Amino acid sequence: MSGLAIEVSVDPSYRADESNDGELRYVFSYTVTVHNQSPHSVQLMARYWKITQGGGDCQEVRGKGVVGQQPLIGPGQSFRYTSRAILQTPVGVMEGAYTLLDTSTQRVFEVPITPFRLAAPLQLH
């Protein structure tokens, strides 16, 4: 581990207006906050997500930065963004990691993202 204190929190929500039960399309948005509690600036270079559907199917997503950016996050600062995931089941789990660069030492390190649940509200017929 890098010794740098980076905190990642995620707030997921179900998007009923974009979802369709009949088409097995369940849309979730999630807002991520990356808080840099270290004394150094860090740059978010890449992301990795593992998305597990309710039936157990997994999808992995890797890419540069987040939402088209590679934000520089100063000491004590936060970066927040919102993205989405589209599942074929009303329940799933996401987890992953961010690859960050410590700009003072040029060291690259990973920060894990704790698994979080995506769940559509129960529909009673």
From TrEMBL:
Q: Which PROSITE patterns match?
A: APAG
Q: Which residues form the ApaG domain?
A: 1-125
> Which top-rank group of organisms is this from?
Bacteria
Q: Where is the signal peptide?
A: none
The record ties this protein, via SUPFAM superfamilies, to: ApaG-like
Pfam families attached here?
DUF525
Q: What is this protein called?
A: Co2+/Mg2+ efflux protein ApaG
Organism of this sequence = Halomonas casei
Q: What is the lineage of its organism?
A: Bacteria, Pseudomonadati, Pseudomonadota, Gammaproteobacteria, Oceanospirillales
